[in-house]
Amino acid sequence: MKRHVISFPRLCFQLFSYHSHLDPSLNRLPFFRRCFSEKKCSFDSTTRNFPNYSPKKPILQDSELVHQISIAIKQRRSEPLRRVLKPYESKFRADHLIRVLMSIRNDYRLVLNFFEWACLRRDPSLEARCILAQIATASKDLKMARKLIQDFWVNPNLDVGVSFGHFVEQLIYTYKDWGSDPRVFDIFFQVLVEAGMLNEARKLFDKMLNYGLLISVESCNLFISHLSKDLDGIKVALKVFSEFPEVGVCWNTASYNIIIHSLCQIGRVVEAHQLLLQMELRGCMPDVISYSTITSGYCQVGELQKVLKLIEEMQVKGLKPNPFTFNGIILLLCKTGEVAEAERVLREMISEGIAPDSVVYTTLIDGFCKFGNVSAAYRLFDEMQKRKISPDFITYTAVICGLCRSGKVMEADKLFHDMVCKQLEPDEFTYTALIDGYCKEGKVKEAFSLHNKILEMGLTPNVVTYTALTDGLCKCGEVDTANELLHEMCRKGLELNIYTYNSLVNGLCKAGNIDQAVKLMKDMEVAGFHPDAITYTTLMDAYCKSREMDKAHELLRQMLDRGLQPTVVTFNVLMNGFCMSGMLQDGEKLLKWMLEKGIMPNASTYNSLMKQYCIRNNMHATTEIYKGMCAKGVGPDANTYNILIKGHCKARNMKEAWFLHKDMVGKGFSPTASSYNALIKGFYKRKKFSEANQLFEKMRSEGLVADREIYNIFADINYDEGKMELTLELCDDAIEKCLVGDIQNKNT
């Protein structure tokens, strides 16, 4: 049968668009859709009429039986049908069902009961099923109509192509006389879409156009939404979005949101933004979802300024950003290292009455952890629980990773057990974070114990797990055991990668086996893995720490000859080597060269120079470097503040040291024990006992250990003031903590 696409005069389309603009909700009304379809029919001679329903005439005996059944169930409706129809059960055939339905069709409840009774005895014909779907739709029982259609398509043995043709034929055949409610085709269309039969759904759409009916915009939205689940489907969805208005589909805000989301998914954010601008011109008002999707898209590609402009535009239009909008901004800021700014966004969000969810908090916690500010992450972790927002296993894993990176493995282990007690199941990433933390501390036995736990839990250790274990073994000098573990990893079907080799090189370097690390780098190439910037940087770091700057330079030359681009970390390694070797002028030359070549240093680059100048008590040079750092837009990190605070305290610049301390805390960074020690001693020497005592109490509340001299100072002060209880408490603290205080202070 030849398929025709409806075409109609522009005036008719403009009339429809005008009414839609006045009241978009009219598009949702089946009556309005039907009226519009009828208008189209009057303009298009190709539109087909629905056929009349003409069942075969029954024989006399059948007519009598149908009459008796109809009379019985009408007159005895209060009785159970199984009792009423028992005398007729043996004579009842499937073709009698439709005849009885014709007699009782105006009593919907009776129709349903009789159909249920008949189905228990005979499978209904496709025609009978379609008839009941028509009656249910006309009776506004759309749930039942959907079930009747769905039940047919759940059969796994159906020949979809043949069955689709038969079903459409029967639904069209029964439409005119049994319901005439176009929603039945909408329901069928939705069932096809939800079952993944998108080609059949499109065929139904085109078929209905031939009969002058238009599938609803809500059903079309479902169609393009299901199409948009993969790249190829998105291409088809974009085509459908462009074509369907030509035959009368008037897209609504939800439609535009689906397409905007699809465009953002494939990185076409600018096109998505243009579509947002076109919405209003086409009679659709963008909503919070429209803007949130675009802002999320721009966040993914790092366009913060465009995101902020869109939020301003939202607020002008009276649209309130939702948690999804803010989460995108927070995620972008965290990715770019602006975690303090990200927290300010959180505070603004709360002040506007928008409740953050666990995703927002987890994003921010993960951001602080990745940039080493675990105390700020812990503060947010506690805050979310106070707000009755339960951390999930992802939140716990983020904090555990942060603690392990900061060398606080025992705290991480405690949090891990807290997580398990709350019935949250750790995954292989959680275990791997702890394994890596233990390995970095040289506690390989504990790491392997967790590895065994992974296996007991039925989880699969990944390449990162084995890489962490081999790294730990290498650091302990157990290179042979590390090699055995790698062979076990290969036997399990896991392939060594560049990260595994780099981890081994790093482990050997940390263990002082630089020659073996160089040999391994050569073995990498034999195995088909080319050393990358990280491999060379790791070896350069080892040479710099052993004060072999010539060998470090040689590796840099090899790296450049191979066309590898040094990273800022590579230059930081060289900078640290120059500074450790006392070659500060060479360090400053390196910094100048980096800036000339457009290689942006980071806080670590400047920290190495500032630390050495502070050690030499040259605070003028230190301050100049710090000013230059800020002028280049490089923000200080926790290490920068700790270096400067200790330097100014040593130089007795307590005013500057105190200002830096307040600035540091204000930005969410935590001072180390050595910074607190320096500040307390500085204030004590200046006779500012109140400030010194305030810092001492703050330090203790954070679980940091002061050095012996500070304990002695405050024990003496409290003793002289007659505060014996506090004096004894400080003495106990000093005895308990100062035995391990030296080790702890070295770690800080």
Walkthrough of the structure:
- The protein is mainly alpha-helical.
- It is built from 41 helices and no strands.
- The radius of gyration is 37 Å and the shape is elongated.
Beta percentage is under 5%
Question: What characteristic shape results from the CA principal axes?
Answer: elongated
User: What share of the residues lie within helices?
Assistant: over 70%
Determine the mean pLDDT: 85
**Helix count, DSSP H or I runs of 4 or more residues:** 41
Low-confidence stretches: 1-45, 743-748
Biggest sheet layout: none
Return Rg in Å.
37 Å
- Secondary structure: number of strands: 0
Outline:
The protein is mostly helical and 748 residues long.
Secondary structure: elements and pairs:
Elements: H1 10-22, H2 30-43, H3 60-75, H4 81-84, H5 94-104, H6 108-119, H7 126-138, H8 142-153, H9 160-178, H10 183-194, H11 198-210, H12 217-227, H13 231-243, H14 253-265, H15 269-281, H16 288-300, H17 304-316, H18 323-335, H19 339-351, H20 358-370, H21 374-386, H22 393-405, H23 409-421, H24 428-440, H25 444-456, H26 463-475, H27 479-491, H28 498-510, H29 514-526, H30 533-545, H31 549-561, H32 568-580, H33 584-596, H34 603-615, H35 619-631, H36 638-650, H37 654-666, H38 673-685, H39 689-701, H40 708-720, H41 724-747
Helix pairs in contact: 3-5, 5-6, 7-8, 7-9, 8-10, 10-11, 10-12, 12-13, 12-14, 13-14, 14-15, 14-16, 15-16, 16-17, 16-18, 18-19, 18-20, 19-20, 20-21, 20-22, 21-22, 22-23, 22-24, 23-24, 24-25, 24-26, 25-26, 26-27, 26-28, 28-29, 28-30, 29-30, 30-31, 30-32, 32-33, 32-34, 33-34, 34-35, 34-36, 36-37, ...
